[in-house]
């Protein structure tokens, strides 16, 4: 009778450990495991190695679990036939089946899901040794199941999942409202093009490059922009960008006879199809604040500033020079329309 009780306990315990470990490994996200691995702890590094190639460790757990359940049941059955009378064997088999289902599967998997991180770390290193021990069997199983594993690998996560996690984090108090809004706006960058955030052609403030500085003094003083587009014979012939501060400094220095084209800096041109996230990188790379946006025919479609792109992330930026109704309001209204059409209302 003692041998029967010990065998039953070993089978239940072995099955429970396998089930709990399997549930813990499957429940713990790969991103969380990578965070744990940054501590360089041996258990965390072993867990990361398992999660990055999880098929073999899972196969090892399945093999071991079935050894406990199948071979264990055979051994227990032979012991029960020796100890119990034939009338009790059926009842014992029913009770054993119930115990395996309850304490070998349901309860361990529930605990494995609830305490996934702790159990996964504890079982990581033993599981790596078990995988190596059962490698010949696993190798055969891999070749048998290879046709079912063909195809592109699944992504760890995507934009929708990250935004959902951010929303859940906000609901649970882990993420503040302003942090949630910033996260949601970040994903709008690659959904917008330069044409969506630019100030359109009809609203561009520009001056003629052939004019002398003194003749356009009033226009320079009245301009609310820190950068002014300088053109030759038409708006499609942009010859550069002039800084308002440099123009005013030239006026104060008595250089009013200079042509505006002589004071203009080279302009940087971008296509209207460039994405806003790429545009932000370009602003950082070339260290400019304003780009000329070209349409598909090479004509000027508008101008886009660093502020236009940043407003996608932060919302509308208003400083002391902005008016209640300014020229850039056209671009802002257009951007809101596009976001609404794409189901990406500004946060």
UniProtKB/TrEMBL annotation:
How does the protein associate with the membrane? Multi-pass membrane protein
User: What PROSITE patterns does the annotation carry?
Assistant: CBS, CNNM
Matching entries from CDD domains are given as: CBS_pair_CorC_HlyC_assoc
Q: Where is the CNNM transmembrane domain?
A: 1-179
Among InterPro entries, the record links this protein to: CBS_dom, CBS_dom_sf, CNNM, Ion_transp-like_CBS
> Any stretches that span the bilayer, and where are they?
58-80, 87-107
Q: What name is this protein filed under?
A: HlyC/CorC family transporter
